[in-house]
Specification:
- This protein is of the alpha+beta class.
- It has a single domain, classed as HIT family, subunit A (2-Layer Sandwich), CATH 3.30.428.10.
- It is 22% helix and 22% strand.
- The longest helix is centred in the middle third of the chain and has 18 residues.
- The mean pLDDT is 97.
Length: 107
């Protein structure tokens, strides 16, 4: 955990939020500033700054969660598609230096 990291605080329960999904390694929450209705985030429970820091062993779990959440958005939000986005380092648009992925439903 990194003391001043907002996502570490969410994972640790210091900032109470409803988890849409919770596993040993990841949580899913609604985005605080959604681009579309249903926009959510997959966040690693351990503090990894970028995708380059994520252990390879967690890749398949991450993909399964992304697929489940994408299907959930298609069903619940009547989306016809979705974006699965992730930024690495500030030059690429990463605002919070804690690994997270955006799932943005589209119609």
């Amino acid at each position: 955990m990194v003391e001043d990291c907002v996502f570490c605080k969410i994972v640790n329960g210091e900032i109470p939020l409803e988890f849409l999904y919770d596993s040993d390694n990841f949580i899913v929450i609604n985005d605080a500033h959604p681009q579309t209705e249903g926009h959510c985030l997959i966040i690693s429970k351990k503090h990894y700054a970028t995708l380059l820091d994520l252990p390879n062993t967690l890749g398949s779990e991450l993909v399964l969660i992304a697929k489940k959440q994408g299907l959930r958005l298609i069903k619940e939000k009547k989306a016809t598609g979705f974006n699965f986005d992730q930024n690495n380092f500030s030059s690429a648009g990463q605002v919070v230096s804690h690994l997270h992925f955006h799932i943005i439903p589209r119609k």
